[in-house]
Amino acid sequence: MQLSNRITTLLGDGHDGWGLYLKSREMIDAGIPVIELTIGEHDIRTHPDILNAMHKSALGGHTGYAAVPGVTALRQAVAARVQDRTGVPTTIDNVLITPGGQSALFSSHHAVCDEGDTALFIDPYYATYPATLRAVGAIATPVAAHARDNFEPQAEAIAKHAKGAKSLLINTPNNPTGVVYSRATLKGIADVCRENDLWLISDEVYDTQIWQGEHLSPRALPDMAQRTLVVGSMSKSHAMTGSRIGWIVAPEEAIEHLSNLATHTTYGVPGYIQDAALFALEQGPPLEAEIAAPFARRREIAMRVLDGQNVVKHLPAMGAMYLMLDVHATGMSGEEFGHALLDNEHIAVMPGNSFGQSAAGHIRVAMTVEDGVFGQALERLVGFAKGLAG
């Protein structure tokens, strides 16, 4: 029996970029202590008050089938949050609740791409992007954003690929680079989308983690609300990664059809998880600031460690929970450096090429361990790089 071509070619060249992470997990399982600076998982757990709300809802009986588009009160809360932050009129009819941001990405591309359509995405990218696009039958096409441009995509580069394409996927604040796209960059992206009749899918799951600049949702730009689907999530803003709760904000017609898709795929999100998400959103910005605070502190620690040396170069993270570090001076690729760092220092990072060719020669460091451990790990990383560079 033969499996489908679509499922067996999801990874393209067969490399998913997670080899170094899996190696670190094997070392840990073997009893070797490793400092993991790999995945974007908070080192604090979901707030006890959110868990209590989830527990109360489950005990109260909200354990059966929940409404597929989402619990009305939660959709209203998401709509109000988005409208308040963007100034764009948003109602419950613009919101679909999804099982996390990844599901929202998959569904959004199903909504706008047919089999064989070209779907653009920015390189560097979150590791799941290419396979997500292939999974819906689209032709995943990267558009390079370069370190010399602060890893912000240039309108001219997108325009070269836009003719005949159907969609463009962007992510700001950005994983893996930590860059927050400027207003000028987003205006350029919007211009290309309008000129080439592209759908824009905007992954904004890090919108509460801004250290420098401002977050601007492209949905708020002129004539963009009707061609933009925004992906949101509780994972990063409220440390609810395992709860799998997110949303899509989109034009009403798109949400109507996306609800049909959800009915025939995920069949919604458990009601007690939705109730917990509603409780979390009702706590407002103070809780979001509490969740974001450790990463703001660790960014300052990183600045102190990295400034004043020129072996490990960096662009100061403007948002999200990551650092993108340039290790070209060591004479190694990002992957070679990552393996050497793990073998010699027992510190695990992600090689930049896990996130696309534009990040080759870099490593991504997740700021996801306790402050003191993080600072020491970064100092050891820099010292190791200096030794390699001579």
UniProtKB/TrEMBL annotation:
<dbReference type="Pfam" id="PF00155">
    <property type="entry name" value="Aminotran_1_2"/>
</dbReference>
<dbReference type="InterPro" id="IPR015422">
    <property type="entry name" value="PyrdxlP-dep_Trfase_small"/>
</dbReference>
<dbReference type="GO" id="GO:0030170">
    <property type="term" value="F:pyridoxal phosphate binding"/>
</dbReference>
<keyword id="KW-0808">Transferase</keyword>
<dbReference type="GO" id="GO:0004069">
    <property type="term" value="F:L-aspartate:2-oxoglutarate aminotransferase activity"/>
</dbReference>
<keyword id="KW-0032">Aminotransferase</keyword>
<protein>
    <recommendedName>
        <fullName>Aminotransferase</fullName>
        <ecNumber>2.6.1.-</ecNumber>
    </recommendedName>
</protein>
<keyword id="KW-0663">Pyridoxal phosphate</keyword>
<comment type="similarity">
    <text>Belongs to the class-I pyridoxal-phosphate-dependent aminotransferase family.</text>
</comment>
<dbReference type="InterPro" id="IPR015421">
    <property type="entry name" value="PyrdxlP-dep_Trfase_major"/>
</dbReference>
<dbReference type="InterPro" id="IPR050596">
    <property type="entry name" value="AspAT/PAT-like"/>
</dbReference>
<dbReference type="GO" id="GO:0006520">
    <property type="term" value="P:amino acid metabolic process"/>
</dbReference>
<feature type="domain" description="Aminotransferase class I/classII large">
    <location>
        <begin position="33"/>
        <end position="381"/>
    </location>
</feature>
<dbReference type="InterPro" id="IPR015424">
    <property type="entry name" value="PyrdxlP-dep_Trfase"/>
</dbReference>
<dbReference type="InterPro" id="IPR004838">
    <property type="entry name" value="NHTrfase_class1_PyrdxlP-BS"/>
</dbReference>
<dbReference type="InterPro" id="IPR004839">
    <property type="entry name" value="Aminotransferase_I/II_large"/>
</dbReference>
